[in-house]
Amino acid sequence: MGVSDNYKVLPTTKVGYDRASELKAFDDTKDGVKGLADAGVTKIPGIFHHPNSHDQYDSGSTQLTVPLIDLGGVGEDPAIRKVVVERIREASETWGFFQVVNHGIALSVLEEMKSGVHRFYEQDSEVKRELYTRDPSRRLVYNTNFDLFISSAADWRDTFYCFMGMAPNPPKPEGLPSVCRHILLEYSKQVRKLGNVLFELLSEALQLDPSHLNDIGCNEGLSFACHCYPACPEPELTLGATKHTDNSFVTVILQDHIGGLQLLHENKWVDVSPVPGALGVNIGDLLQIITNDKFKSVEHRVVANRVGPRVSVASIFSTGLQPSSKLYGPIKDLVSEDNPPKYRETTVHDYVTYSLARGFHGSSLPHFRITNF
Questions:
Q1: With 60 as the cut, is the pLDDT of residue 24 above it?
Q2: Which of 191, 205, 246, 350 is the most exposed, fewest CB within 10 Å of its CB?
């Protein structure tokens, strides 16, 4: 039985339209958005309609280019490192995002990671349904929209993720999908190495000791989210991901050639155009908190596309939902009488729990901001 057989698309304008029932009917199929696309729907269900979602800001500016930083030589040449650190500082303060090349992860590993995500989503529906759940404490979760039942409109996106993390307590290999198990482990190992380098460069950009951010545990946790954005028959009516910020210290983003990721910069949506071999580096909320607003956690979204499926992998530096009593607040060396702390201290677990409970509704930072700022 296909999705089109056991799930009827109800128009939002129909008298007596019951959104809750339609959400449940869709979720109960456990086939996700890809199931709808594979069934050949020509009209997207009403639960995915985003009223006026594309009219809030100027869209897809071609006049602005996201910073692209070459990391080649940063470990060997002090002069190159000085230039790179300055570029990272500027990008983190003004954009909250930059792309990196010559980052040390082989192109073959990046390509195999994307292929592994495709293999996961191309599995038989019966196999994927075994993993479909809304329990975030499960080691591996596959579903459509973690906030499906609390959002005002669903996003045209499926995800499989490991919020309990690949580090510091990695899952047993047999607990990962067999079709992408090896590359998930290898890619996570490579991204952790890159994360150590990035946190050193970010520390230097803050004029701190190079080891500072690693020493306080910014690199301790790593989880992943592997997204699939199927081709959409009516992309103008929906989004692949609603505007939000990341509840991480840093998120490293691998995207394919299709594109769709946009950043909100100077009240304009700017396309993050795919660059072969590049990885995106997204400043997260937790880094904005500990830098006392010096580095910015950027709002971003993903637009839907008639071409697909688009895949991306978000590698999330955070201990996420793992229990922790460690408190994070503005770094003491970055505050002063003239620049007092702007955020109250929080654990990573509490911040992530609050963020997930809100869903994709902009930023969670205001809730942790000291009220006189």
A1: yes
A2: 350
